[in-house]
Amino acid sequence: MTADLFLQILVSGLLIGLIYALVAVGLTLIFGVMDIVNFAHGEFLMLGMYASFWGFALFGIDPILSMPVTAALLFGVGVLVYQVIIRRIINAPMLSQIFATFGLMILFRGLAQFFWKPDHRLVTHTLVGGNVTLGSIQFGLPQLTAAVGAVGVTAGLWYFLHRTRLGTALEATAIDREAATLMGINGQSMFALAWGIGAACAGIGGALIATFFPIFPEVGSNFILIAFVVVVLGGFGSIVGAFWAGIIVGVIEVVGGFVVGPEYKTAIVLSLLLLVLLVRPKGLMGKA
Amino acid sequence: MKAWLRGTVVGAAAVAALGLVWSGPARAQDEIRIGVIYPLTGAAASTGVELKAAAELAAAITNRELPAPDKLAAAVGMPNLKGAKIKLIFGDHQGNPQVGATEAERLITSEKVVALVGAYFSNVTATASQVAERYGVPFLNADSSSATLTQRNFKWFFRTTPHDDLFVTNFFAFLQDMEKKKGVQLRTLGLFNENTLWGNETTKLEVKLAEEQKFKVAEKIVYPAKATQMTSEVQRLKAANPAVVMQSSYLGDAILSMKTYKELGFSPQMLLANDAGFNDSEFLKTLGKDGEYVFSREVWALDQAERNPLIKRVNEMMKERSGVNFNGNSARAFTGVAVLADAINRAGSTKPEDIRKALQETSLSAEQLILPWKGVKFDAQGQNELGQGIIVQVQGGQYVTVWPFDVATKEVVFPMPAWDKR
User: Fold this and answer.
1) How high is the pLDDT of residue B28?
2) Reported ipTM exceeds the 0.85 cut
3) Per residue in A150-204, pLDDT tens?
């Protein structure tokens, strides 16, 4: 393998890895705050992609420009899902929680298929369309934009959680729900906030991914398995962990796929996951 | 007179037999229940919905709800069953072989269908037809091309479409013809197929034929169909630099691979696709100009209507009812139901065994079909011997027939221009 080729593959892996991280941060946030695995997270991503698509198809607005609206919409969806469903199952057995979010996943897919048809859609023109050539390396501008977006979202989330009053309150709720309540933090609002932010992250992810990936009701399932791997690898609930784990998974998938053979790329990623779980069950940056 | 007599005798026998089993002979007489299993939800749902529309059109023509050209196989109707009506009962397999088998079982046992049609995905057809074989119900497959399906020596399985062995053999014949005509060398191949039964069988056969016909396989990739990225795949193809890429993909991955080709600046001299995703009506709608110059094998192309007024008329009916033109998949689904209806009429009975016998005796000619075949006639294993494929190319946003050269409507555009020179 020449150095150019290796660099090209590395860059491709890095870009897709950052996109995985983007999908995973919202998922890990929700889990970190309230220990509920959101199986419908891929569907939040799908809704974000459709919001971007319809903004583009109906009003001619670029997904990048409509991103704030998409994020706000998904924030609303997240809060609504929390208020209508999740609030009622916080103290329910884990199996009920799994079924609730799993059912939500099926509901969202069904609704998307019913209202928007099962067709594959594509945002055909975007501000960030086209290719970038750097020396001998080529990559898509949409992917680069999405990767930059992933860095931005992760950094923003980190800043929010560690440097703002509201974020610290959220973090406190995550660490100890009861103690935080005793300190005057409204646990219910914090949970709703976590769902809102988690869904908004998926919305931003959807907007960025919509610039280069086909959009269809089941699109969430393509990303969600890898997102779970990223969350577990990074450590459940760790935003920074998910960020680095996303990059690791992306690079290993692309480089491993190239070197060993593309038919094994998913197997390679999942083997890595098993290995990490054996050596370090709490993930790279998870708290025990 | 003789046919009438036979029809009456068989009909009476059927009535006697069926009367014992369910509600009564009246329903069996005026309603022929046929189970149709397609992916109506899930990743291939957009294809499934088109297949369903085509099957419904064939049923409507058989039921005389629509006037159709007399020559058409389905237009004969059901004179031997006193003009009985076909009722299609749909099952949704969601692209899942287990679900396909369960749906087949449901249609046979609770819906009491007399025959099954389906199921597009070869792996689902495999499981669903096993159920039909167990219950002794004819299974007519119109649109799955895995060659193994008719190598199982099933008694109740019939397939109208040509299978992959034939299509893939066509690829190599096409390349040899191109070499002769254009004086070029197309001897290095990149095999790029998805990893379900269909893609794996295709890969095996392509390797075998390449060896036999002195082509060199520069790269061979079997990729997971539900992909988030295809960078490693395309990089490997690019590094191997084959003259021709032979690709088998469903819709989502067909779109993703095209976008990745463009992104990484990969353009072989020829991209020769194996139908499916590349021929879905969504493919060009979604990709627009980026879908140009792709070759694909087909069993049907809209430009065949220019050559044949019958095809033109039936396509207009399809367009009126469902808003889309026929494509290779829906034209085959249409033909599947038509062939089954023809057999049921000739059987003059809704008993599975009679239908099976009638299917075995099927003899339809080219003029009765909307497909560019020589006809329909099943061999001992249930495979239609008279089917054949064509090669189409995307030119100006249309799939035009470019091979075999004698039925082509347009000249081949070759080689595929590089992405930055379009």
Assistant:
1) 44
2) no
3) 999 999 999 999 999 999 999 898 888 889 889 889 988 999 999 999 999 999 9
State the angle between helix axes of A187-209 and A3-34 in degrees (0 to 180), rounded to the nearest 10. Answer: 160
Secondary-structure class of domain B165-298+390-421 per CATH:
alpha beta
Q: How close is the nearest chain A Cα to the Cα of B37, in Å?
A: 17
Q: Hey, where are the domains in chain B?
A: 2-162+306-376, 165-298+390-421
Q: What gap in Å lies between CA B201 and CA B84, rounded to an integer?
A: 41
Rounded Cα–Cα distance for residues B122 and A87 (Å): 44
Parallel, antiparallel or unpaired: strands B270-273 and B295-298: parallel
Indicate the fold that domain B2-162+306-376 takes in CATH. Answer: Rossmann fold (3.40.50)
CA-based torsion, B212, B213, B216, B220: positive or negative: negative
Query: H helices of A35-140, where?
Result: 41-59, 67-81, 87-89, 94-116
**Who among B41, B46, B235 is closest to A119 (CB)?**
B46
B31 forms beta bridges with: B85
Q: Which pLDDT score, from 0 to 100, does residue A288 have?
A: 53
Residue B36's region, left for phi above 0, alpha for psi from -120 to 50, else beta, is beta
Does B255 touch chain A if contact means CB atoms closer than 8 Å?
Answer: yes
Determine the residue among A120, A134, A221, A253 to mutate to test chain B binding: the one whose Cβ has the most chain B Cβ atoms within 10 Å: A120
| Joined tokens for residue A172 | 């406190």
Q: What are phi and psi of B249, to 5 degrees?
A: -145, 150
d(C-alpha A121, C-alpha A217), whole Å:
10
